[in-house]
Amino acid sequence: MSKKILYKDAWQSIGRSPGRFIALVLLMLLGTFSFVGLKITGPDMRQTGLNYFNQTHLADMTVTSAYGLNQADQKTIADQARVKAVNYGYFTDAKIKGITNGIRVFSNSGSLSQYKVVAGRLAKTDTEIALNNTLKGTYHLGETITLQDGTGLAKIKFKVVGFVKSAEFINHNDFGQTSVGTGQLSGFGVTTKRAFFLTEYNLARISYRDTVKLNAYSNAYTKLINKRQATLLKDLNQHRAAKYQAAKASLSTALINQDTNALDAASVDATLTLVEDFLTSHGLTTVREQSTTANPVLVADLNETAPSAPLILLGHLDTVFPVGTAKQRPGVIDGERLTGPGSNDMKPGAVMAIATLLALKEANYQAHPVRLILVTDEEILHKNAPTKETIARLSKGAVAGFNFESADPDNGIVTGRKGGAIVDLTVTGIAAHSGKEPEKGRSAVLELAHQIIKAEALTDQAAGKLVNCGLVSGGTSENIIPDHAHTGIAVRFTTKQQGDELLAALQEQAAHPTVAGTTVEMKVATKIDSMDTLPGTAALLEKLQASSRLLHQPVPHGKQTGGASDAGVLTAHNIPTLCGLGIMGGGAHTAHEYGLVSSMFDRAALVATTIAHLD
């Protein structure tokens, strides 16, 4: 049979780009989400040996999935135009005990992409393995090897029964990269399907009828395979829409339908329990960081013992709505539109952060520790609580942060946000009758007027600085010189330095009252740091933009915005951070808020793929 195919060094192509191997197409379906990482490889014109490819019946196309190819996926593949044969199988990466590099372990390929035996034979039982021929000499026929970190393998000890070649690996000096061991593949092995305990196939090799007479070096062949690849990827991805409508019990809608008011301990506890149960059911351990003066912070870790610096996934579970709102207008999905309390800010964003962590777990990501931090009092700006300090402690030493606050529909990624503070200014004077003994009085209201004029004079909107004395009170009667007065001040700033300067100026003014005999007390009720654009922010954005091209998504742009977020806590501790990575939509904090469902998939995939590409 004349078989025309030259891979893009199939597995080498995967190996050179760990994120492409994950290739995360996240199916986050109204709740129980599944993660399907699809990799479809086509021809590579760089290699010679056409006869060798024909002899081994090398597949025209290979599909790999980090999570499995279910029956619907298999039907989609079978229904593609001109499909001649499909061979399903398994693969995983593992490390041979005693060496630092990994190997890729396959089940026997069947009729497509056959292995050529150099010595010995192929495996016949689930405790036998044939290694690639470049490992001959390092290992010997009859020797028993132990495989470690092989997700999905039913056995760990295998007897070497043969050495083989594969047309899928042409360059024997570079087998690609892996998340196992040192990150470099030193070869591959072939065992039986029974050696795997995976419930679904994660690899499919495909041949087509109309490629037989095409020259593998021709533009016609390349064009045909590229077209088939694009069509298949599109059709597989379309499963998402059907699963949206079919899934009724989802983490997203479950969270929206669970009130989470930061001032109501019972609703916070119920929400945390819901999330904890979900994460635990997916093999992750959670911890509640408790405080006597603050709501709990939920933490889940992946690869926490890895020696490299950690990465942070950040979000919040609370909303601005009172208890009872979820019952009045529960979460609803109507086509692309998700509505309900917190449907924009930011229940779906929390789900996306969770999905990103689980996608990395399913893909066996091991390069960095990844920590998920979900807080429950963000909407009240962590008022009178040490939550910011907790976030800072939990993020210590991190090299990058990803905050899943909601996004505008403009496909922007937030690289800088304003910070804010609420300041209470209280003036104490001396009361006196304004008719009989005015000379004995010291007006707190008059002093407050001086303080307000000086405070608002600090505003410089062009520079991004704002001081607004929005609440004013004082005095008890028109004919009494007031002995007390108060203003509540909103302070906004673009950088941490500006914030520090504004608060210092307000403190200085309070320390030097204009009206003799009055005293002024300044108290910072709460403060959210600005999200500063750090030297590493641009590089992080560039990696995310590169990942969007890899996933064939529109390339997002960086943007500055108002509205404080906990991303400022990370940048205040010199952690380059991207924000606004959550669901796209609008109407936050209103009865009209909404999110666009497809953006949940796309952006979670985008962040996971970006993480997979980080050094």
Architecture blueprint of SSEs:
Layout: H1 10-16, H2 18-22, E1 24-27, E2 34-41, H3 50-55, E3 61-69, H4 71-78, E4 83-89, E5 91-96, E6 102-107, E7 115-120, E8 128-132, E9 144-148, E10 157-166, E11 185-191, E12 201-208, H5 219-237, H6 239-246, H7 251-256, H8 265-281, E13 286-289, E14 297-302, E15 311-316, H9 325-328, E16 332-334, E17 337-339, H10 347-362, E18 370-375, H11 387-394, E19 400-403, E20 412-417, E21 419-428, E22 432-433, H12 444-456, E23 466-474, E24 480-481, E25 484-493, H13 496-511, E26 519-528, H14 537-550, E27 557-561, H15 567-572, E28 577-578, E29 585-586, E30 594-596, H16 597-613
Parallel strand pairs: 6-11, 8-10, 15-18, 15-19, 19-28, 20-27
Antiparallel strand pairs: 1-2, 2-3, 3-12, 4-12, 5-6, 5-9, 7-10, 8-11, 9-10, 13-14, 14-18, 16-17, 17-30, 21-25, 21-26, 22-24, 23-25, 29-30
Helix pairs in contact: 10-16, 14-16
